[in-house]
TrEMBL record:
GO molecular-function term, one example from the UniProt record: phosphatidate phosphatase activity
Organism: Xylaria multiplex
Bias (Basic and acidic residues) ranges: 15-30
Protein name: Phosphatidate phosphatase APP1 catalytic domain-containing protein
Domain named Phosphatidate phosphatase APP1 catalytic: residues: 208-358
UniProt-listed InterPro entries: APP1_cat (IPR019236), Mg2+_PAP (IPR052935)
Start and end residues of each stretch annotated as Disordered: 1-30
Composition skew (Polar residues), residue ranges: 1-14
Gene Ontology CC terms: actin cortical patch
Length: 408
């Protein structure tokens, strides 16, 4: 589901940031393998065109193909919850499927990014671009199914994938204990690669949960600077925001191992392996939720991070709320994009604390208006003052969270 874009103060702020930081100029020179042609038109063979056309039917597609030895599959970690009506366990399974074959535009893609950030071909970082750009140039596999073994035993079918090569569906699952993690393994032909193992975290109806933004909240991304985004995404080692790993470790210890964690980012699915490894290295296990609107588009990376993020995040948080309506949530975000407005909108009855990291680096914040007190007052006008907190030093949030957990 693609949220409807509304003309809100936060959208106006995003558009102003894009204009002042000249996002359009940067995007114009970046490759977009999905914009000139439809998925059907760009398919490489007659067979691919056939399945690409049917893929627009989504899960109702009557015909599908299977993963081959030359394909890539990503199984994304998820969270199991009890269906409120049936009391049975279920979870949303998301999988991405595409060919190991990369678009012929790979060289151009690498070159365009290197040119934008003034990187010479002999620089060692040039190889890093080639590695990270891969998921943006691999041919997607619409209309494709993947087999997997839940718990290494129960066979499940994922897909068929939609026109973007991604499948998303609710699966009923066997029971497990609150806080337990169960693996699911892709059952693919020898030669197929990707993220072939995922984890399902079981979350009972009641308890604590955390919804966290990623970019410039827990990871330095510089989301208000187009060149900064390209550097932090395609060249530099992912860097945690100072003090945030320690804060999340503290929150996790307070809310216990049964707390459910959701990392909600406006980044596209192309970056899932990159962000999953980052999360594993620095933060508690949790479900990463990303946008699917810029598959096969480097240009789209900048767009998804800077436009329509409030509506997108509210939509996804409403989905999380439908899964776990009785959980007590702590929401953590930053001032660079629309986290304050999104959290302010989702607040009633469910969210017990909102923590907003005040980002003061101009490359990340873009325009100073994002840090004005009036902005936060407006975003949280319907939220009690003791619920939301703006911070510069994450250490100051430890006592806040302690008080919130003890209170509730």
């Amino acid at each position: 589901m693609t949220p409807t874009r509304r003309n809100t103060p936060s959208l106006e702020m995003q558009q102003r940031t894009r204009k002042e930081r000249r996002f359009d100029d940067t995007e114009r020179d970046l490759p977009d393998f999905s914009g000139k042609h439809s998925v059907v038109a760009s398919a490489s063979t007659t067979t691919d065109k056939f399945y690409a056309a049917l893929a627009y039917l989504g899960l109702k597609n009557p015909l599908s193909r299977s993963i081959t030895a030359n394909d890539t599959v990503w199984l994304l970690d998820n969270t199991a919850y009890r269906n409120e009506k049936t009391g049975l366990w279920e979870a949303e399974y998301v999988a991405a499927m595409f060919s190991q074959h990369s678009s012929s535009a790979l060289v151009d893609a690498v070159s365009s990014i290197a040119d934008k950030i003034n990187l010479e071909e002999r620089d060692p970082a040039y190889k890093t671009i080639e590695e990270r750009i891969g998921p943006f140039v691999q041919d997607i596999k619409p209309g494709t199914q993947a087999k997997a073994l839940y718990g290494g035993k129960s066979l499940i079918t994922l897909g068929p994938s939609g026109h973007n090569g991604i499948s998303s569906e609710i699966k009923r699952l066997p029971g497990a204990n609150d806080g337990e993690t169960v693996p699911t393994l892709a059952r693919v032909p020898k030669g197929a690669n990707g993220l072939l193992e995922m984890k399902t975290f079981y979350a009972e109806a009641e308890g604590w949960g955390v919804i966290s933004d990623i970019d410039d909240t827990i990871k330095i991304t510089q989301t208000s600077d187009p060149i900064g985004i390209l550097r932090t995404t395609f060249i530099e080692p992912p860097e945690p925001a100072p003090g945030m790993p320690e804060l999340y470790k503290h929150i996790h210890s307070l809310t216990k191992s049964t707390s459910s964690w959701f990392y909600l980012s406006a980044s596209p699915y192309n970056l899932y392996p990159f962000l999953r490894e980052f999360r594993q290295n620095y933060y508690p296990h949790g479900t990463i939720i990303l946008r699917d609107s810029s598959w096969m588009s480097v240009r789209g990376l900048l767009t998804t991070l800077t436009l329509g993020t409030e509506d997108y995040k509210v939509d996804r948080m409403e989905k999380i709320h439908s899964w776990l309506p009785k959980r007590k949530m702590i929401c953590v975000g930053d001032s660079t994009q629309t986290d304050p407005e999104a959290y302010g909108e989702i607040y009633p009855h469910w969210v017990k604390a909102i923590l907003i990291r005040k980002v003061e680096d101009i490359a990340a914040i873009g325009i100073e208006a994002k840090n004005e007190p009036e902005r936060f007052e407006q975003a949280f006008k319907d939220v009690p003052r003791d619920v939301w907190h703006v911070f510069s030093d994450p250490a100051t949030c430890k006592k806040i969270v302690e008080d919130v957990v003890s209170k509730h």
